[in-house]
Amino acid sequence: MLPHGWLFPGRSRTDPISSRQLHRAVQEAAEVAGIHKRVSPHT
């Protein structure tokens, strides 16, 4: 944890986002960007 909190805080702000939340955010960003290929947090 960073001194001022998580880089990617979850809902409670005391915990980081879950891997599932990260995956959903990446999928949503790809959709908004018009990327039709399969994407993941690792790409």
TrEMBL record:
Q: Which GO terms describe its biological process?
A: DNA integration; DNA recombination
Gene Ontology terms for molecular function: DNA binding
| InterPro entries with a match to the protein in the record | DNA_brk_join_enz, Integrase-like_cat_sf, Integrase_catalytic
Q: Where does the signal peptide begin and end?
A: none
- Disulfide bond as UniProt keyword: no
The segment(s) forming the Tyr recombinase domain are 1-43
**Key words, A-Z:** DNA recombination
The protein, known as: Tyr recombinase domain-containing protein
